[in-house]
Design goal:
The structure holds two protein chains of two kinds. Chain A has ten helices and 14 strands. By secondary structure, chain A is an alpha/beta fold. Chain A folds into two domains: 212 residues, 3-Layer(aba) Sandwich (Rossmann fold); 67 residues, Alpha-Beta Plaits (2-Layer Sandwich), CATH 3.30.70.100. In chain A, the strands form three sheets. A six-stranded mixed β-sheet of chain A has the order 6-7-8-3-9-10, with helices on both faces. A four-stranded antiparallel β-sheet of chain A has the order 2-1-4-5, with helices on one face. A four-stranded antiparallel β-sheet of chain A has the order 12-13-11-14, covered by helices on one side. In chain A, α3 runs parallel beside α5 and α4 runs antiparallel to α5. The radius of gyration of chain A is 23 Å and the shape is elongated. Chain B has one domain: 3-Layer(aba) Sandwich (Rossmann fold), CATH 3.40.50.300. In chain B, the strands form two sheets. In chain B, strands 6-7-8-3-9-10 form a six-stranded mixed β-sheet, sandwiched between helices. In chain B, strands 2-1-4-5 form a four-stranded antiparallel β-sheet, covered by helices on one side. In chain B, a hairpin with a 2-residue loop joins β1 and β2. The longest helix of chain B is centred in the last third of the chain and has 16 residues. The radius of gyration of chain B is 19 Å and the shape is globular. The chains are: A alpha/beta, B alpha/beta.
């Protein structure tokens, strides 16, 4: 397999906080690879190190075949879209794009085909100052600027944070199409539900990778049963379920509670009869497959120390 | 949650224009005392503009509104004293300690020294943050910051607390603990007005409104909204409202 990024034991501390703790992984050519984890997990630090914007304390990586110390080689091969808007607000849409092309010694025309699909949506605003664009448009422009030098590896740091669910979905569809062109993409997100859009994901928390696998494999590996429960009185339901001694965890998931329990103890009948006994109406009790969020919470609780 | 039926927010035909652009286009709704009210919408739909009017920061172009018993046009100062607000990225001072932040905000909200002292202790022990009290904010874990930010926004015991995407980027366990705090506040009678991009969280609200292009296009309990739009999930309800053409072609 052709590996585009190989990271080995990358460690970085800020004063007493270990932002990254011996992080190792590899990303294959043409893969859409997700880093899923909350704020403060170390995602941005990792991307900064891999794009040579920041130095690691120890460990190394090969990015498109180059060691981290080969900054210039790496920078021309990667596209990087930081979490914060980092274009020039006083330059127009077109000027920003031309600027980034020029910095990398190319022209907008030369690589236009890569950004065409995204840029057509920006074209009506090409003379507008970047600072005056809407959030969604800024994001599209930032993506164009990160792509204009035809990078071999694309790093997107939390491109969907704070973005509404519909726009998030559209952004991921766009990434799916970029991937079709053979680009290797590393993307970070705090939204667990976005994991399913990736070929493989690394679940990351407090500078440590909890697990790496295709999302479907991670959920299959979940060692417990998950039972989803709802009733007409969710507040009371929660209190009643918390008394179930064979429950490993009880968490709200939208309109349902998810109860996890060891497979040998798991029984929907037992829960159904408990609910009946407690006077719940309109109940629903079903064994379901674990989602990434169930897995993430389980791994968090088992990696506390 | 006991809802008394008394309205704590009443909005009628509220409009906000910026030049020729209408950010909030004639919205009307009521929120009941003690309700957890979800205020949803796509980016740019006008949520933030609406909230900034409701908390008395921006004056509306036209319409009527009463918030926490005060008129939005003539008593905006009174409104600000009776509400709490927590912004997207919480507004604690990183270089002050936990206790200093509490004291600072209590002072801003006009609490008297002896009351503030009492309230600060109460808050720290409720949150179980005794071991952090003299720690700088920048050194405490994110989940704790989030919880502290919410408590600080309510230190003056406001009638309504406005939370603008309070759980954005938070880990899934802390996110759920944060909702426990929201329920606690609501149970004590504080009205919670909240925006979120997590659709599972919209299910935790008593009622939800969805804004599209400056208007409120839907408002009901999550169960009723799903029924009304014949949708499996709130995600689907949201999609149908925010991108009507796409869901028709589906």
């Amino acid at each position: 397999m052709n590996e585009r990024v190989i990271a080995t034991n990358i460690t970085k501390s800020f004063r007493s906080t270990k932002a990254l703790d011996a992080v190792s992984f590899s990303v294959n050519e043409g893969e859409l690879f997700g880093f899923i984890g909350p704020d403060g997990a170390g995602k941005s630090t990792l991307f900064r190190i891999l794009t040579t914007v920041m130095n690691a304390d120890s460990g190394d990586a090969l990015v498109d075949g180059f060691h981290l110390k080969d900054e210039i080689a790496i920078r021309s091969r990667v596209g990087y879209m930081p979490g914060k808007f980092s274009l020039y607000p006083d330059l127009s849409v077109q000027e920003n794009l031309e600027f980034f092309a020029k910095v990398f010694g190319t022209t907008v025309n030369e690589n236009y085909s890569i950004i065409k699909e995204i840029y057509v949506q920006l074209e009506p605003f090409k003379d507008r100052r970047a600072g005056k664009l809407s959030g969604g448009m800024k994001q599209k422009l930032a993506l164009c600027c990160a792509l204009i030098h035809k990078p071999r590896v694309l790093f997107l740091d939390e491109p969907t944070t704070g973005v509404d669910p519909v726009s998030r979905r559209e952004f991921w569809e766009m990434l799916g199409r970029l991937k079709q062109s053979g680009l290797t993409i590393l993307v970070s997100t705090p939204y667990m539900d976005e994991a399913s859009r990736c070929d493989r994901v690394a679940l990351i928390q407090k500078g440590k990778i909890l697990d790496i696998d295709p999302p479907g494999v991670i959920t299959k590996k979940f060692p417990l049963h998950v039972i989803a429960v709802k009733s007409d009185n969710m507040q009371k339901l929660r209190k009643d379920i918390l008394k179930v001694e064979y429950a490993e965890s009880v968490y709200g998931f939208g309109e349902y509670l998810h109860i996890t329990m060891k497979k040998e103890n798991s029984s929907t009948e037992k829960i159904e009869s408990l609910l009946k006994q407690q006077g719940h109406q309109h109940t629903e009790v079903k064994l379901i497959e674990a989602g990434i969020e169930d897995c993430f919470m389980h791994l968090m609780e088992h990696n506390k120390n | 949650m006991k809802l008394t039926g008394e309205n704590i927010i009443e909005v009628e035909n509220l409009v906000k224009r910026f030049g020729s652009f209408t950010a909030v286009d004639n919205i009307s709704f009521q929120v009941k005392k003690g309700e957890v009210f979800g205020f949803l919408g796509a980016n740019g739909a006008g949520k933030t503009t609406a909230i900034k009017m409701l908390i008395g920061l921006w004056s509306p172009t036209s319409g009527k509104a009463n918030v926490a018993g005060f008129d939005l046009f003539t008593e905006a100062n009174q409104i600000r004293k009776n509400i709490g607000y927590m912004a997207q990225r919480f507004s604690l001072y990183e270089d002050l300690t936990v206790i200093e932040n509490i004291q600072f905000y209590g002072g801003i909200y006009g609490l008297r020294k002896n009351i503030l002292k009492e309230r600060a202790e109460e808050l720290i022990s409720e949150l179980g943050m005794e071991s952090f009290r003299k720690e700088l904010i920048k050194n405490i874990p994110l989940g704790w910051k989030q919880k502290l930010a919410l408590s600080v926004a309510m230190i003056h015991k406001p009638k309504i607390v406005f939370l603008d995407e309070p759980t954005s980027g938070v880990d899934p366990i802390t996110r759920r603990q944060f909702w426990d705090l929201i329920y606690n506040a609501a149970e004590k009678g504080t009205t919670v007005f909240i925006t979120t991009h997590y659709m599972d969280e919209s299910e935790y609200c008593d009622r939800v409104s969805i804004m599209v292009d400056g208007r409120i296009e839907a408002l009901d309990t999550p169960a009723q909204l799903k029924k009304q739009f014949n949708a499996e999930s709130m995600d689907e309800v949201f999609l149908r409202l925010a991108r009507p053409t796409e869901s028709i072609s589906k």
